[in-house]
Specification:
Layout: H1 2-7, E1 13-16, H2 19-25, E2 29-32, H3 47-65, E3 73-74
Parallel strand pairs: 1-2, 2-3
């Protein structure tokens, strides 16, 4: 599905915990997430730290969304 959306001219960011799977499905912009049960957070952190963590992932995804890429790119 990611490839089809990109083919339509809409940039897509794949936020995932297992980046090799994203590479296999052909995602062009890949942002690593935290862990499989909590991809965009960490419940062991306090509220302030978790908000910072989540915000960082979303900001990285937005940066990836606005970055021109030539092929598959992982945004660390």
């Amino acid at each position: 599905m990611v490839k089809e959306i990109e083919r339509a001219g809409i940039p897509v960011v794949h936020v995932c915990t297992v980046t090799p799977i994203s590479m296999t499905v052909g995602a062009n912009r890949i942002v690593p997430a935290i862990a499989i049960p909590y991809p965009l957070g960490n419940p062991s952190l306090d509220k302030v730290e978790e908000k910072e963590l989540r915000r960082g992932i979303v900001e990285k995804a937005l940066e990836a969304l606005t970055t021109e890429v030539d092929g598959q790119t992982i945004f660390e």
